Amino acid sequence: MKTTNIYTGSLSTIVMKLLNEHDSMYGYQIVKRVIEITHGELQITEGALYPCLHKLEAAGFVEVSYAMIGRRTRKYYKLTEKGTRETVKKLAELERYIQNMRALIHPKFRQAE
Fold it and tell me: Could you give the domains of the chain?
């Protein structure tokens, strides 16, 4: 399965979750990690990732730093405190969404509320 609208709608949550698990990451590192975690089922394109990162930065959820790697400058992304709080909120929303989807797909397995 390649990137679908379902995943696209969750891209910022996926990125923020990964950044929450690591001190900082650069774009290609995020792409590789998603592929590893999903065993290739989800592949984020640069065309989707970088606009997402820019929006997160503009919202104050992510801060950017730069490091020289050889002769190249690498751009690293890190969650801010505001971004960490937003990540917790987005993950809770995603968990509720997943629970509701499970209930719709398998109604007899719905968890007691």
Answer: 5-108 (1.10.10.10)
Task: Kindly report, residue by residue over 96-107, the tens digit of the pLDDT.
Answer: 988 888 888 887
- The residue behind tokens 């909120």 is 89
Alpha helix (H) residue ranges in 2-80: 5-9, 11-21, 27-37, 46-58
Phi and psi at 42, nearest 5°, equal -115, 125
Which residues, including other chains, have CB under 8 Å from residue 78's CB and lie 6 or more apart?
19, 23, 24, 62, 63, 64, 65
Q: What is the dihedral of CA 86, 92, 97, 101, to 10 degrees?
A: 150
Kindly report, residue by residue over 32-52, the tens digit of the pLDDT.
999 999 999 888 888 899 999
pLDDT at 1 over 80: no
pLDDT at 59 over 70: yes
Integer Cα distance of 90 and 93 in angstroms? 5
- The pairing of beta strand 25-26 with beta strand 62-69: unpaired
